Structures are given as C-alpha cells and as structure tokens.
Amino acid sequence: MPLRLPSDVVSRYRRFSRFNSPYPAHDAGHAVDLYPAGEDGVSPVAGVVRETHTVRCPDRSYAAPTDHLIVIDLDDDWCRRAGTKPGTVARVLHVTPTVASGDRVAVGDVLGPMTRSGFFGQWVDNHLHLGFRPPGANALRASGSLPVVIDTPVAGVTWDGTGTVVDRGPTHVMLDAPAHPAPDERFAAIASDDGIPLDGGLTHYAGGGAFAPIASGRTVSLWGTRVGVAAGRAIEWDPIDVTANGERVVGLSLFAARDADYGAKIVCPDHEFAVGESISVRVAASDDPIRLGNG
C-alpha cells in the first residue's frame, strides 16, 4: 500500500515533484521533492529524530561537498493520517540539520537550512527530498522506500509552448508562461494534449510521471507529438528532443506549483537566452536523445 502524503502537509510548500530526478530513490514515485518558500527545511512529518548522517556528494562546482540525512521515527497519529503502519520511518535529505537524535519535531518545524547538494542539477532549486521506510527496514540504504501518493489535486494547464524569458540562471531560463490559473489556491502543472498534468524531466531523465491517474499503456503527447507511454502514474519517455527557438536544449523541467512565479523552466546550459527574449518550445522524435545519469 502506498503512503498518502496529506494535502494540508503538501500545501505548506510552493512546489513538489515525485519524478523530476534521475536517482533510483524516485523510481515509480517512491519519493517526493518538496520546495519550501524560504531557505529553511520545513518538516513535512511529525515524530522523533532517530539519527542524522553526513554523506559525501558527487563533486559539483556549485554544490557543497557533503549532504545530510535526517531519519525520523514517525508518530502513530501521523502514520494513521498517511494510511501507513505505525513504526514507519521518514528519510529527509538536502537539509543541514539543526536537530539531533531524540528531538521531537512537528509538521512545520524547521529541521535546518537547506543545502545545495551535488545530488541534484544546478538548475534545481533547494528542496527537501522525502522518502519513507516500512517498520524494521534499513533506513540508511538509498533504496527500499515506500511508494508515495500526494493526496492533493493538481490542475493541468494547457500551454502552447511559447513565452518570454523572465529569469535566467547559469543552466536554465524561466518563462512567463504558462500562467498559473489560481496562484496560492491550488497546485498546477503543464498538461499533455489531453489534459494530464505532467511531472519529471522531459526527457533528460528516462522516466516521468503524472499528477493524475492515467491508464497503463496510454500514450502521452505534447503539441501533437507522442512523448511517452504511461504505466500507472509513471511515464516512460519516448526518445525525444526538446528545442527552444529551433535549438536543441537539455529538456523541460516539469513539476507542480502553487506560487505566482510559476512558469516553464527550460534546462539549457549551452545556450544564453536573454531576459525579454521570446521563446518557442517544441518536441520532436529523436534517434539520439539527451539522457542524464545519476552521476
């Protein structure tokens, strides 16, 4: 049985994604990345800190040399609300802990400042990685987490692929489109041609997902081009190139957002699209698609 992350927990964050990662911990929706509004790692769970660990990161020029794991024994009441067994354990990454073994934390408490980790790309905002282990399982291994269901609706937003650059980083640009239909009131995500809100790295990560139930074997298309095939809420991407103004880019970052700054994020480390520039994003079948690994 999947663990259901309650809606009132998820609503504390401005964005979330289950599939926008190349790491096996996210396979088939077994973890979720939560993006707080500030720089502090706000706890999505209630319980007692069992232990914290510091681990080495992949060597990245933009990242800290270490990351951190916080293991929390969940309260029985939190487990009941999430529909999981008492004794379930939460694993939180990408936060430098200011909590220690034996500390009790409630939903909304600060666990510590978030850290820029070499485990995620330079275009990825600071966030908490959250996963869960069943009672008695090894909480320190990278794999073995429970599947997670996000118990909150996400509206699918139709987008024609065009927009204007409003912000740029060293490896990405943000567009002013699509517009969020109801900022701060509900979550929304870019939708497929038939209205399914999409999640994941299109298609620089091999698999993505959907924020709504989707029949296994159903094809998924965007702007009239098939981009993948569904398996539950997971989607196996087809070999696809993403282009911006006719130039191939790494991909399109897909996530659910509730903040007014929502817009398409184009991953494009080899291009310098300027603020104010008009962009047209398209997808096309490819015999040599970009696929990023977990290193």
Give a structural overview.
This protein is mainly beta and 295 residues long. It has 2 domains: 3-150, Glucose Permease (Domain IIA) (Distorted Sandwich), CATH 2.70.70.10; 154-285, no CATH class. The protein has helices at 7-10, 76-82; strands spanning 3-5, 15-17, 32-35, 40-42, 47-56, 66-74, 89-93, 104-105, 110-113, 128-133, 148-150, 154-157, 162-168, 172-175, 187-190, 198-202, 207-210, 219-222, 225-231, 234-237, 240-244, 247-249, 251-254, 256-257, 265-267, 278-285. The longest helix is centred in the N-terminal third of the chain and has 7 residues, at 76-82.
Quick gist of this model?
Helix content is 4%, strand content 41%. It is built from 2 helices and 26 strands. β19 and β20 form a beta hairpin.
Find the structural class using helix and strand composition. mainly beta
Main sheet attributes: strand count, strand direction, barrel closure: 12 strands, antiparallel
Strand content: 35-45%
- Silhouette: globular
**SSE string, helices as H and strands as E:** EHEEEEEHEEEEEEEEEEEEEEEEEEEE
Report the CATH C-level class of the largest domain: Mainly Beta
Number of domains: 2
N-to-C terminal Cα separation, in Å? 31 Å
**Alpha plus pi helix count:** 2
Q: CATH topology of the largest domain, which one?
A: Glucose Permease (Domain IIA)
As a percent range, the share of helical residues equals: under 10%
Strand order of the largest sheet: 18-19-20-17-16-23-25-14-13-26-21-22
**What is the CATH homology-level superfamily of the largest domain?**
Glucose Permease (Domain IIA)
What is the mean predicted local confidence, pLDDT?
Answer: 94
Report the CATH architecture of the largest domain. Distorted Sandwich
Number of strands: 26
